[in-house]
């Protein structure tokens, strides 16, 4: 099978390249905007191809003669119509798109509308589509989420938490997500379906702090304050600082319950993610090894 991968050099994409390398009888072309990524792509025997997803002509030319598409490029930048139309015109039949569970937010996030419209474009297309919605993604030293949280807990003698701290999180490890993407693409059970991919089970934010503290073998005091004053303070800081280290919307998003079942993914293509405790402990081991 001849497969095009877009977004294959990013945080999740790099893991997808590795995960799909175990499959045989595939011809894979990976789109990139920079020759700097050629070595990453070629190490797996894949073909690097210079193209920009914003350029429909480049996209269509890149996809000509290929049967499958795995799109890991964010759907939040308004490129979905370009990608879908190019795939249809190039004769692509099977396509998987990575979206996000953030489309379920109750907040008025700017990207929510764009992402939902992108998903609708995919569903209305002639492609044999599957949509994957991961929760917050973590894992590895290039992780921009939990690795920062680990360093923050290690550095601070105490933590101030808005609200009760009982709001739920269910981060998914990037390697589990990558395997899930590949398995879903090749499964005969996933056509015209949307799946949430989350961690093994949800944990509260308080539990996340405890899990990280236990992994670091440190004790941290946690203070809970009403959320409204904290949000108001950061809203004010946004007005007077060019780059506040935290935005009020991020606090609001943090306090949303983000627990998502993945039973259908488990049933349809055997998705079995690791639990947060194991994922965090692995990340802490990697961090300590790097700093030795």
Entry keywords:
292 residues; alpha/beta; two-stranded parallel ribbon; 12 helices; 18% strand
CATH architecture of the largest domain: 3-Layer(aba) Sandwich
Strand content: 15-25%
Q: What is the total tally of β strands?
A: 13
Rg: 20 Å
**Broad shape:** globular
Number of helices: 12
* Biggest β-sheet strands, sense, barrel: 7 strands, parallel
Total count of domains: 2
Low-confidence parts: none
What does this structure look like?
This protein has 2 domains: 2-134, 3-Layer(aba) Sandwich (Rossmann fold), CATH 3.40.50.720; 146-166 and 203-254, no CATH class. 43% of the residues lie in helices and 18% in strands. It has 12 helices and 13 strands. The strands form 4 sheets. Strands 3-2-1-4-5-6-11 form a 7-stranded parallel beta sheet, sandwiched between helices. It is globular and about 60 Å long.
Topology:
Layout: E1 2-6, H1 11-20, E2 27-32, H2 38-42, E3 47-50, H3 56-63, E4 68-71, H4 80-90, E5 94-98, H5 110-123, E6 128-134, E7 137-138, H6 146-155, E8 158-162, E9 168-169, E10 172-173, H7 174-186, E11 193-197, E12 203-204, H8 205-216, E13 221-225, H9 227-240, H10 248-254, H11 263-269, H12 276-291
Helix pairs in contact: 1-7, 3-4, 6-8, 8-12, 9-10
């Amino acid at each position: 099978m001849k497969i095009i991968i877009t977004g294959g050099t990013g945080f999740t994409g790099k893991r997808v390249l590795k995960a799909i390398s175990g499959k045989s009888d595939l011809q894979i072309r990976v789109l990139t905007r920079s020759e700097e990524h050629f070595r990453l792509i070629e190490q797996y025997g894949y073909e690097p191809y210079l193209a920009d997803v914003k350029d429909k002509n480049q996209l269509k030319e890149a996809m000509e003669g290929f049967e499958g598409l795995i799109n890991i490029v964010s759907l939040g930048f308004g490129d979905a119509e370009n990608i879908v139309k190019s795939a249809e015109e190039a004769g692509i039949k099977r396509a998987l798109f990575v979206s996000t569970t953030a489309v379920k937010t109750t907040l008025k996030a700017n990207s929510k509308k764009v992402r939902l419209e992108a998903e609708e474009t995919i569903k209305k297309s002639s492609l044999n589509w599957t949509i994957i919605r991961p929760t917050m993604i973590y894992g590895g030293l290039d992780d921009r989420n939990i690795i920062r949280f680990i360093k923050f807990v290690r550095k601070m003698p105490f933590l101030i938490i808005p609200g009760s701290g009982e709001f739920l999180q269910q981060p998914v490890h990037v390697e589990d997500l990558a395997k899930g993407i590949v398995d879903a693409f090749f499964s005969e059970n996933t056509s015209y379906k949307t799946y949430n991919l989350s961690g093994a089970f949800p944990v509260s934010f308080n539990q996340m702090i405890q899990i990280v503290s236990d992994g670091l073998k440190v004790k941290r005091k946690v203070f809970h304050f009403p959320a409204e004053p904290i949000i108001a303070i950061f809203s004010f800081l946004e007005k007077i600082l060019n780059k506040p280290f935290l935005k009020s919307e991020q606090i609001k998003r943090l306090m949303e319950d983000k627990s998502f079942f993945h039973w259908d993914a488990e049933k349809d293509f055997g998705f079995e993610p690791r639990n947060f405790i194991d994922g965090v402990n692995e990340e802490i081991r990697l961090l300590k090894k790097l700093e030795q």
